[in-house]
Amino acid sequence: MNNISANSQSDILLEKIFTITQDLYKEMSRPAEDSSDNHAAIFRLLTDLGRNLVNADRASFWKWDKRAHELWTTAAVGTGRITIPEGTGLVGKALTEQRAIVTNDPYNHPDFNSDVDKKTGYVTKSILVMPICNCRGEFIGAYQAINKLDSDGKFDLDEDCRKLSLAAFICGITLESETFLDDSHHDKLTELKNRMGFYNDYNKNFSKILSDPNAVRCVSLFICDIDFFKKVNDTYGHNAGDAVLRHVAKNISRNSRICDGVYRWGGEEFIVILPDTGINEAAEAAERIRTIVMKSVCLFEELQIKVTMSFGVTQLDPMKSIEDNIKDADEKLYKAKESGRNRVIV
Fold first, then answer.
1. Distance between CA 64 and CA 67 in Å, rounded?
2. Cα–Cα–Cα angle for 110, 96, 94, rounded to 5 degrees
3. Which residue numbers are catalytic?
4. How far apart are CA 269 and CA 263, in angstroms?
5. Is the pLDDT score of 2 beyond 70?
6. Cβ proximity of 246 and 189 under 8 Å
7. CA-CA distances (angstroms) from residue 80 to 27, 30, 73, 196, 299?
8. Per-residue confidence band for 26, with pLDDT thresholds at 50, 70 and 90
């Protein structure tokens, strides 16, 4: 009877694995308009695959967002998205020490964070965390399984890591692919999104606001650049110029809303796109940033560098292409430059 039961359980597990891998194949073969949504679906399937392989009640796959210095769940079976500071919790410990961790007594483990359990009433009895690396051996995320459903509810470090390795390996490859895509949308110097990131966000989010027939919503945009930036490079050197670009990018980003898109358009030019914002409100936002940048000081080595910025503001016309809308804002920026700089033109 035991052999029959064991064989039956193996058949059930194998069928689950085949079903999930078939869904994975379909998902990875599907041409996706939104690749980030495509990755999210793949992560959910891979997370569920790993959960079944080690027979856990819950599972999650964590991304190490080194740009934001955070760890967050790209997919979680049994709970919502969780974000924690890098280096914290059992996931942070596993990544810091670059090794798998098992605890079958989590509430007495110094690195276990019980806040989620306190909020939800869930009882965590056992945890397995397995760090994930890319093809260059750099650790980029971690797989976490919670509450073993067999073996007296206890994870075995060697055996369960062996079972989990396939799902973790594919998760690593997928996460590396997503990281490459994310990096291609960001400017390395300022860490803002770049022109490619702008068009991705516009097509995915902002254009839908303009084209929504059931809602009267507006989107505005301003383009700005640093006045006499060439003089900064010529006077202080290109390293100082880079410091000024980072300084300005930080001020624009910190003084924009979470819903706004902030981008380095190229050179010393930046674009901010503001959803659900009319042209007057956008002009006020631009004026606020202009004043903040003008009053701020960029510290570079022993230098104190001050710069000003000029702005061109427009409300997006849904009947025009995004390129033509940007051209409208750019023409106003040109007028700001021609009329004395350090000003906002609407």
1. 9
2. 60
3. 268
4. 9
5. no
6. yes
7. 22, 26, 8, 30, 41
8. confident
Instruction: Return d(Cα 132, Cα 145) in angstroms, integer.
Output: 14
CB neighbour list of residue 199: distance below 8 Å, 6 or more residues apart = 322
Q: Is the dihedral of CA 96, 172, 164, 52 positive or negative?
A: positive
Return the bridge partners of 75, or none.
61
Q: What was the pLDDT predicted at 1? A: 45
Strand pairing category for 127-133 and 139-148: antiparallel
Nearest alpha carbon to residue 308 among 261, 264, 340, 276:
340
pLDDT in tens, 75-131: 655 556 788 899 999 999 999 999 999 999 999 999 998 887 888 889 999 999 999
Please state the length of the chain: 346
Which among 224, 206, 229 has a CA at the least distance from the CA of 298? 229
Q: What is the dihedral of CA 186, 187, 191, 197, to 10 degrees?
A: -30
